[in-house]
Design a protein that fits this description.
This protein is of the alpha/beta class. Helix content is 53%, strand content 7%. Strands 1-7-6-5 form a 4-stranded mixed sheet. Strands 2-3-4 form a 3-stranded mixed sheet.
Length: 378
C-alpha cells in the first residue's frame, strides 16, 4: 500500500502544474511572440538579401527566446542582456567547437557545457543559448562572423520589439529590480531573502524584488483570509466597565486602578457612548513640565472639592475625550487595522445594533487576534 502511494506521488510529480494566468495574458503573450518573430524575420531576410548573405538568416533558438521575452518578461532569463549576450556568446562557443573539435558528438557536448559556463560568468544565463551553441555545431558553422549575423542581429531585433510590445501592453521590460526601502514593521529584510537564496543555491526564474513582493502579498492575503472571518464581537471584552458624564474623578480613577484598565467609556443613561476617559486625560490636567510632586498634584485633582465653587475639574465629563471612535459588534476585525496601526487608538468601544455599549477592544485584544491568525494552532 505504501509502495503504491509512493509511486502515485512520484507519477504526479511529472504532471504540469496549473497555470495562474488568465486568457487575456495568454493572448498577449501569443500576439507578442508572433509579432516579435515576424518583425525580426522580415528585417533579417531583407538584410540578408541586401548583404548577399546566402546562409541562414533566422535562427531556431529565437523561438525559445520569444517565449521568454513575451510570455515571462519578468524572468531574469528573459532580460535584454540575457537574450543578446546569451545567444551571441553561446554562438561563439559553438563556432569555436565546430572549428576545433572534429567529432560532432564531442563538439556538441563541449559547446553546450561551455556556453552554460560562459553565460554564468557573463551573467547572461539564457536557456536558448544552449540551443544556439548546439545549432552552430550541427550546422558546422565555422565563420565567427555568423555570431554577428544572424545570432546577434536576431537577438537585438527581438529584444527591441519586446521592449516596445511589453511596455505598450503593461509589462515592465526590461524588468529592472526596484530597490525598496525597508519598512519599519517589515517581518523580514532583503538580507534575510539573500541569506535564504544563498542557502538554496539554485537559479530561480524570478527576480528578488518580485519574490519579496510575492511573499509580502501572500502574508497580507493570509491575514485577510484569517481575520476576515472574525468580527469585533469575537475578540472584544464583553460587559465593559463604564462611567457616566457626572461620575466623580476620584471614583473613575479608583475604578481604573482597581480593574487595572487604562480607559473607561463614558455613557449616558441609555448606555450610548458619549466619550472616553483615559489615564492620559487625567495627566493632561497636570503640569507635567515639572516632575516633582506629580503624585500629590494627581491626588489634589481627583479629590472632591467640598465647596460650591471649584476651580478644577470635578467630574469625568469635564476631562473626557468627546470625539471617540466606536465600532459595531458585527464589523470585521480587519477593518480596525488602520485605527490601531495608524490612527493612534488604543481602545475602541463596541456598540450593538441599537448603538449601546456592549464591549471594548484594546490593543492587547487586537494583537492577540493577530497572533492567533498567524498561529491558528495556538
Amino acid at each position: 500500500m505504501r509502495l503504491a502511494s509512493s509511486l502515485l506521488t512520484y507519477a504526479r510529480a511529472w504532471l504540469p502544474g496549473r497555470t495562474t494566468v488568465d486568457a487575456r495574458e495568454r493572448l498577449r503573450a501569443v500576439g507578442g511572440a508572433a509579432l516579435g518573430l515576424l518583425v525580426t524575420a522580415l528585417l533579417c531576410r531583407w538584410m540578408a538579401g541586401a548583404l548577399g548573405h546566402n546562409a541562414i538568416w533566422l535562427i531556431a533558438p529565437l523561438g525559445a527566446s520569444a517565449v521568454l521575452v513575451f510570455a515571462v518578461p519578468a524572468s531574469p532569463l528573459a532580460q535584454p542582456w540575457s537574450v543578446i549576450g546569451g545567444n551571441t556568446l553561446s554562438a561563439l562557443v559553438g563556432i569555436a567547437c565546430a572549428n576545433w573539435i572534429p567529432d560532432p558528438a564531442w563538439a556538441a557536448a563541449v559547446a553546450v557545457g561551455g556556453a552554460i559556463g560562459l553565460m554564468f560568468a557573463a551573467r547572461c544565463l539564457h536557456p536558448p543559448g544552449g540551443a544556439a551553441a548546439l545549432l552552430a555545431v550541427l550546422t558546422h558553422t565555422t565563420h565567427f562572423s555568423s555570431a554577428l549575423f544572424p545570432f546577434l542581429t536576431n537577438s537585438v531585433l527581438l529584444v527591441l520589439v519586446g521592449v516596445a510590445y511589453n511596455s505598450l501592453t503593461g509589462r515592465r521590460y526590461p524588468h529592472v529590480q526596484v530597490a525598496r526601502p525597508p519598512a519599519a514593521d517589515a517581518r523580514f529584510s532583503q538580507a534575510d531573502i539573500d541569506a535564504v537564496l544563498s542557502r538554496y543555491n539554485q537559479v530561480l526564474d524570478i527576480s528578488r524584488d518580485d519574490l519579496e513582493s510575492l511573499i509580502q502579498q501572500t502574508e497580507l492575503e493570509s491575514y485577510k483570509r484569517r481575520l476576515g472571518t472574525l468580527h469585533c464581537a469575537d475578540i472584544m471584552s464583553g460587559q465593559p466597565v463604564s462611567v457616566e458624564f457626572g461620575t466623580p474623578l476620584q471614583e473613575a480613577w479608583a475604578l481604573m486602578h482597581a480593574r487595572r484598565i487604562k480607559a473607561l467609556p463614558v455613557t449616558d443613561c441609555t448606555r450610548r457612548v458619549v466619550g472616553i476617559v483615559t489615564q492620559a486625560d487625567f495627566f493632561r490636567q497636570l503640569d507635567l513640565q515639572h516632575h516633582e510632586g506629580i503624585a500629590g498634584r494627581l491626588r489634589d485633582l481627583i479629590r472632591a472639592t467640598r465647596t460650591v465653587v471649584s476651580n478644577k475639574p470635578e467630574v469625568v465629563g469635564q476631562i473626557m475625550t468627546r470625539q471617540v471612535r466606536v465600532a459595531s459588534a458585527d464589523r470585521p476585525v480587519v477593518e480596525l487595522v488602520p485605527l490601531f496601526s495608524e490612527g493612534g487608538h488604543h481602545h475602541i468601544p463596541i456598540i450593538d445594533s441599537e448603538k449601546r455599549l456592549t464591549g471594548m477592544i484594546t490593543q492587547s485584544d487586537f494583537v492577540r487576534a493577530l497572533y492567533r491568525a498567524v498561529r491558528p494552532e495556538m
